[in-house]
Amino acid sequence: MSNFVVRRLLSVIPIALIVLVTVFLLLHIGPGDPAALIAGENATPAQIDQIRERLFLDRPLLEQLFLYLSHVVQLDLGQSVYSGLPVLSLIAQRIEPTAVLAVSTLILSVLIAVPMGVWAAWRAGSTIDTALIVASVLGFSVPVFVIGYVLVDIFALRAGWLPVQGYKPLSSGLWNCLRSIILPSVTLSFLFSALVARITRATMIEVLAEDYIRTARAKGAGNRRILVVHALKNIGVPVVTVVGTSFAALLGGVVITESVFNIPGMGRLTVDAILTRDYPVVQGVLIVFSFVLITVNLLVDLSYALFDPRVRQ
Amino acid sequence: MTAQQPFLSVRNLSVGFGPQGAIRAVRDVSFDLEAGKTLCLVGESGSGKSVTATSIMGLHKPGSAVVTADRLRLDGVDLLSCDEARLSGLRGSLMAMIFQDPMSSLNPALTIGFQLREALQLHEKVSRKAADARVLEILQWVRIPDAARRMNAYPHQLSGGMRQRIMIAMALICRPRLLIADEPTTALDVTVQAQILWLLSELQREFGTAIIFITHDLGVVAEIADDVAVMYAGTLVERGSVHDIFERPSHGYTAGLLRATAEFVPGEESLGRLEEIPGNVPSFSMLPKGCSFVDRCRFAAPSCHERTPDWRAVATGHDTRCDQLIDDARAASALRETLI
Amino acid sequence: MTMSPSKTFAAMRSARPGLAVSLSLLALTVVILMAIFGPLVLGSGNGLNPLMRLKPPSALAWFGTDNLGRDVFVRTISGARNSVMVGLSTAVVVLLIGGTLGVLAGYFKWVDRIVMRFADGLMAIPGILLAIALVSVLGGGLITIIIAISVPEIPRTARLMRSVVLSIRELPFITAAVSVGSSTPKILLRHVVPNAIGMLSVQATYVCAAAILSEAALSFLGVGTPPDVPSWGNVIASGKEYFRLAPWIIAFPGVILSIMVLSINIIGDRLRDRFDPRLAARKAS
User: Which residues does C266 contact at the CB level (< 8 Å), separation at least 6?
Assistant: First the structure.
């Protein structure tokens, strides 16, 4: 078991390295001069040179990579070209709304998707089941921003129950914050729940057809016990897996949702940085998002040991 | 001996699948079983043996099968009139079932101990400590070595033979009076098979459990059966004690089955020719008029095509649904000769 | 609640696929026809008409007009062409590169080790963000959009095809081919690939749907196709600021986009029911 944990932890290193190298290379794979790219169209040659020096773009590629990696390891993500502020502090400023949105969406989605998926599997072939299948396919087919605007239209513009946009930080009170996050969260939950519910349902149907469920019934176990004690644990691995793999989609959706609802989080930061060609910020955001994703997937893999005893060997 | 009610009494059990139960997989199956005895239900794949067993236990998914019978009584309990809650209570306590594949029949996410305790605690109010003691006891009974440690093991850590013993232990922990074993040894290799069979007969002797043993292997039948019921294409064709069936088979199908089993005679060079039964089992929607075995039977006469024979007594406790082998004395004695 | 596997699958299939698939195919055909012929008949819809700005849907402009007086319906139709093209091109690129890598990784251990490491690494970066970054570095234009959307999808497809090939490898006829002395390229081409084509087509539909959504998302954020190139994402993006005044700018293209993606996904699901070899391998074991 500890063997498994150690191996999994170690495997993070090459992945993290590939991420860092990829992010680093982004600047250099374009056709033009990276410094000119950052400086913009209206920059003078002098400005371009200045940038080239500041960002070490005049050094050999490998040296740049080494410098870059050593900085990242020391948690130095460089400075914003636009504002001069350290990238890390820019990110720290914007991280709360994004984190709150992501976490609340995750919790809301799982609380909806897993029970619905289990219920639909139990009643496979019935109207409830068909309804869930339809809802799921809609959930990951309709774009996040379309859902967002529909919800804003109904619940904010017409009913006036919830704010149209903006974000109230946690410091202004929990309820205040939640109120501003409900619509964005629900919007994003459509996508996430759809992905999770589908897998939950499919896995549950498979499990319910297994021989050991028949054995449990032959022992005299009732429906509720079969569902909760025998079936649920066996869907753990695929369900947790899909939560992990869908997390990337969640993070992508967060970026879009922040745009729809004008939430000043990391998504907005990224888009603004792209539009101002502030590449250090772009790189920094990519790194942070990626490391969050790596961590989530690590936790997912480690959780397998909870569900599947065969993993514990 | 006063005529008592048989321990298990089945009359005209029929099971249909599909829309309105139109596909009749089991038709008018009737048999009795005495307490503490072993009945072997014999037939090839698709003959309806498993469906019959599943119907007794009431294990069909609700709505998937139409089960009718004139009588289905076990130890005085009318199983037909039981609702699902009642049946649930009876399963594991009065009647238990073990299945063919021990690999997949145990929950991989739960320990052996947990699953065994559950089998007990679903029916008896016992403390955790008492339950563990009972579990240990039954594990030792089924000859699981190092039982105390094994209780915390998971199914994937055990061999196939051990898993089947665990299944038997799970089935018997509440001392049910009826055990239905659906081809429990088919998936195991021969040496393990012998151990399991021995174990079952030991347990029957100890606990007095009646056993319905479903199999297609006549060797197994010879070893453990008290009574035999032969099934073909969804109905019973012959019933009797194990001696009756082996010494005086009275149905074309039973005869075919026996002839298809090689017998090793010491001193003889070759085993002789294995005779197969020609043709295939008919599909349920295209049963021949008359006796369902008629197209494959070597004793078939014109009358066999006309109507399905009724049950006829060959001797006390030995019935058959074949006219030929009773009426035609010549055919019957010729058959006996080939089997000696 | 025991259900035999065969009954389960029957239940899953009969959850009205006939109706859904038929409607989807119909919708797709309509959209594709619109995409091909629409701009020829109606023009690109870029004509500005300041007098007619922000008018609600009417007989003159079925989907209303946007802030520059452009007919939203016409723009949606011409957007269809670009969006669908991006979708199809991405699918082709991803399948060629990702599919090949996946098949090779499934068959050769050493390829597997290298490729899957990189795939894991690349998949650790959220797709949209990687696409955004690539667009910003490579510049605008449809080609770079296609590249930017393809790159994040390649690892996922490679992973899928790898697992498909792994399960095909276990099937008896492959062992038979090897034992007869068939050469590896031959086995790959004759046996493995034909059996993988089914799942390839399934993956093609999902990638296509994802690409259309990605393009729309990128354009919505303002970092996708250049504003002068009509695409569904662009049309919707132009309606962002005017949402309260003129919701139709977002609504109608949004619905068309959703229907398109929905149809593709439904067809993809149906194909998967038919083709997933992992289901077949499980049934056979």
Answer: A137, C20, C21, C24
